[in-house]
């Protein structure tokens, strides 16, 4: 029976005839000369003992029996594609390196857990992680210097694709000795804007979100500009001054009472954290598997 099995090119030819309604167009689609394609179909019809293709001056179409064969041919070709994808994934796991650039908040608060889970199922993938602010992540992606980025910026350049990986919220924080920690009424947005703050550097997603939220108000000059949420947290703990920072970076300190969150009337700063990458839209290989795992875990998480 092995000698009677059709090769994959013949199956692709039959599917192409069904799709194009023309033997000539089908032959071109699979890279065969038309006489060879016609001969291959006739040989297989004789082998099966049934007519597969009905030819006419207007073109070619499948007979009833040919339609059944084409249905199964599509299934076989799809299974072969899945086989090749699986083989490529196995090879990729053995050979691949994954270069990731991540904004500071994501790198400090979320990526360690994400990468730890990924490494358990992909132990052979070598991961290179660098921390940059969101603007720099976009620049490095555009330059082809990394495979995948994680950002906290409110907007993503049109040339890039993205997927939501987490949610976050910015909070105003002070040390317990600061006068705002004893306020009975929320701050106003104008008061916050007029106060010198410990802030992230320009280009960070946290800074961009804050600047957009306060754009309509007179602003005080920053008290201090720092390059990470950890540095801001340390400064506020030391009593340098108030700051606006990711809740992910200070949840533990707020829970222990080491820092105080200050409500601001009429100001809510939720934001979306995203994975970003260059085209094509469908992200494949280790980068695609990392993002898929993160998104699935987020969907399974309670709440």
Automatic annotation (TrEMBL):
<feature type="domain" description="HTH lysR-type">
    <location>
        <begin position="6"/>
        <end position="63"/>
    </location>
</feature>
<keyword id="KW-0238">DNA-binding</keyword>
<dbReference type="GO" id="GO:0003700">
    <property type="term" value="F:DNA-binding transcription factor activity"/>
</dbReference>
<dbReference type="GO" id="GO:0000976">
    <property type="term" value="F:transcription cis-regulatory region binding"/>
</dbReference>
<dbReference type="Pfam" id="PF00126">
    <property type="entry name" value="HTH_1"/>
</dbReference>
<comment type="similarity">
    <text>Belongs to the LysR transcriptional regulatory family.</text>
</comment>
<dbReference type="InterPro" id="IPR005119">
    <property type="entry name" value="LysR_subst-bd"/>
</dbReference>
<dbReference type="InterPro" id="IPR036388">
    <property type="entry name" value="WH-like_DNA-bd_sf"/>
</dbReference>
<keyword id="KW-0805">Transcription regulation</keyword>
<dbReference type="InterPro" id="IPR000847">
    <property type="entry name" value="LysR_HTH_N"/>
</dbReference>
<dbReference type="Pfam" id="PF03466">
    <property type="entry name" value="LysR_substrate"/>
</dbReference>
<dbReference type="InterPro" id="IPR036390">
    <property type="entry name" value="WH_DNA-bd_sf"/>
</dbReference>
<keyword id="KW-0804">Transcription</keyword>
<protein>
    <submittedName>
        <fullName>Putative HTH-type transcriptional regulator</fullName>
    </submittedName>
</protein>
């Amino acid at each position: 029976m092995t000698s009677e099995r059709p090769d994959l090119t013949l199956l692709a030819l039959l599917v192409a005839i069904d799709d194009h309604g023309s033997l000539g167009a089908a032959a071109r689609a699979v890279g065969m000369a038309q006489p060879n394609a016609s001969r291959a179909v006739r040989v297989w019809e004789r082998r099966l003992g049934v007519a597969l293709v009905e030819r006419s001056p207007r073109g070619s179409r499948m007979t009833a029996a040919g339609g059944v064969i084409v249905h199964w041919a599509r299934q076989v070709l799809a299974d072969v594609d899945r086989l090749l994808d699986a083989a490529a994934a196995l090879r990729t796991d053995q050979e691949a390196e994954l270069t990731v650039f991540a904004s500071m908040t994501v790198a400090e608060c979320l990526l360690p857990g994400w990468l730890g889970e990924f490494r358990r199922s992909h132990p052979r993938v070598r991961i290179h992680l660098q921390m940059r602010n969101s603007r720099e992540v976009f620049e490095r992606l555009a330059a082809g210097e990394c495979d995948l980025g994680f950002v906290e910026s409110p907007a993503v350049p049109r040339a890039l694709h993205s997927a939501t990986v987490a949610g976050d919220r910015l909070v105003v924080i002070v040390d317990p000795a600061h006068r705002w920690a004893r306020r009975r009424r929320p701050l106003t947005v104008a008061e916050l804007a007029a106060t010198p703050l410990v802030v992230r550097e320009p280009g960070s997603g946290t800074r961009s979100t804050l600047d957009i939220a306060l754009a309509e108000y007179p602003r005080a000059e920053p008290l201090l500009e720092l390059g990470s949420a950890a540095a801001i947290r340390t400064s506020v703990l030391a009593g340098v001054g108030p700051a606006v920072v990711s809740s992910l970076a200070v949840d533990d300190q707020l829970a222990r009472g080491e820092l105080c969150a200050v409500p601001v009337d009429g100001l809510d700063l939720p934001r979306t954290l995203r994975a970003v990458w260059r085209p094509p839209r469908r992200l494949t290989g280790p980068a695609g598997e990392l993002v898929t795992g993160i998104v699935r875990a987020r969907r399974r998480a309670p709440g």
